[in-house]
What does this fold into?
Amino acid sequence: MVDIDQVRGYMRQQALEDRERHSIPVTGKTLDEALKQASIELGVPVRRIEYEILKKGSSGFFGVGKQNWSLIAYEAAPEKAEDEEIEEDEFSAFQHEKDIIQDADGEVIVKLTSDGVLVKILPPIGNGKKASEKQAITALKARDVTHFDERLVAGVVKQADGQYVRVGDFDYNPVNDSIMTVDIMDAEMKAFMKVKPPGKGGTDLTVDTMIGFLKNNNVIHGIKEDILTGFEEHPQYDQSVLVAEGSKPVNGANARVMYNFQVDRTDLKLKEKNGRVDFREMNLVQNVVEGQALAKKIPAEEGTPGRTVTGRLLPAKNGQDMEIGIGKNVRLSDDGMTAFASINGQVLLTAGKINVEPIYVVEGDVNLKSGGNVIFLGAVVVKGSVEDGFKVKAAGNIEVMGNVGKSEIDAEGDVIVHQGINGKSGGTVKAGKGVWAKFIENSHVEAGEIVVASDGIINSQVDADKKIICQGKRATIVGGHLRAAEEIHAKTLGSVSGSETILEVGYDPKSVARITELNEKIVAFQAELDELALNIATLENLKKVKKSLPEEKEKYYVELLEKRKTAEAKKEDLEKDKDEIESYLASLKTVGKVSASDKVHPGVVVIIKEVPLRVRNDFRATTFILEKDKVKTKKYEKLEEDFSQRQ
It folds into this structure.
């Protein structure tokens, strides 16, 4: 609770502060004008002034009963130290700006108006000199002003805040006001103003006066107020000044199409590999998928009309419309603004129309000259050969009229090679369905269904989910490792030289390969678990002896437990996958057979459902089957259908 002594102490403090403050009476037409006047006389910014209103001003009614504002103003109490620090920081923030601004001296501007003589002091810039009281008085006398308050002028100079302050009166003579003329030129697109200086007793021009004059003389558009503001402070008498400029009409932009693919096929984007450009990756094929947006139309824009300085409208043309050109396998959205692919394939712009081609044709060989590797979301036709070191991948079929070398061929459909495949112990051919070729030599071939080679298969690894067939006059399988779920068939198996030729049937080779991969991963996880168990046991023994572990070792112990938990879960998932594949293989009804219509040479190894038989004698017209867990021979069984032509 506040007692009477506290109240008295507070009142004494306030009275002391009031006595220390210097107060002055000021008047003005508005409150702002009165405060500016107080700022000049007290020599402090307006924000540092406190005041008491003695009499409120009034604008009266049509000038009748007009009253000025009357105040008692004094400097506010000193601001807190932290505010001063902020001001210091603000000053520091402008140091860089100060360094780059050109120096300029302070300036005195005198303006004669119907309300009296106004003076504005512009502060210096950079290292410029401040305007002096002497300069201000000289400027006033140069305008024939003799009745002014020198003390007030001194205050304005000291303040130098760039604000006009009324400092005196002059004998106003309206007859000697500045005279303005205006010339409208360049088909009413420009207006030039010329001003004669005011005579004795005449007033200076204000921006409002000049704008009013221009509008009264039919200049109503494009008035350059910044030019007029500059003219007000630094008039250019007896000179033509461009004060208004018309706006030219702007025609609307035509409709255009934005393509979401590379239109200019010559603009190649080469890929780097190990710091070198790989010219095999030329990216000439631009693949798109069904439903992909290929192009979007940007609609035509309306024109923006112009205006002369007199306000006359200058019409503009609207942009011209256009449609997106579409060709094969491309559709437009309902509003016609977007083009979409109807199929997977290669997008091309031909004669202004967008087409999606389901087949990509290489007119010659696949090499550097043709553009390098081919990757396409449709079918690929190569009219030549695929040279060593290049790739052809397709979502459809791949058809090669020539040969396939030490390259990479991968198709979701069929791979048809009209000549032969010679991978030179490094090439691979994969097909989601079948592989068809005259011969296969020193290659790795995988097919989701069938592999057919009319002349034979030599020293190759061939896997097929159904059949491997060599059907022709020289249909021979020599060397290598062939695996098929249902059947392997040829005219001749093996060679006179006794080259080892391994032929496996009766299971899914991909599943067997997956089991091998899973076994390797399971062994790796078991090794990791063994090491984790050893480390965990070491820490647990240490914990038993010392009752507790240091913080770092305890943290490490928790991490090991978490790693063991994760490794066990992953190993369990792998074992589950392996069990499922083994169950699938055990359930296969296909037993499989291996047949030779002519001869089987020694050195051939026949494996049916993991039961092997090494051929040690020649056999003729023989079929190998599995009977009572043994591989036995029987009379040759002909193919059930003709595979000499692709179905």
Summary: Residues 18-100 form a domain with the Dodecin subunit-like fold (CATH 3.30.1660). The chain has ten helices and 44 strands.
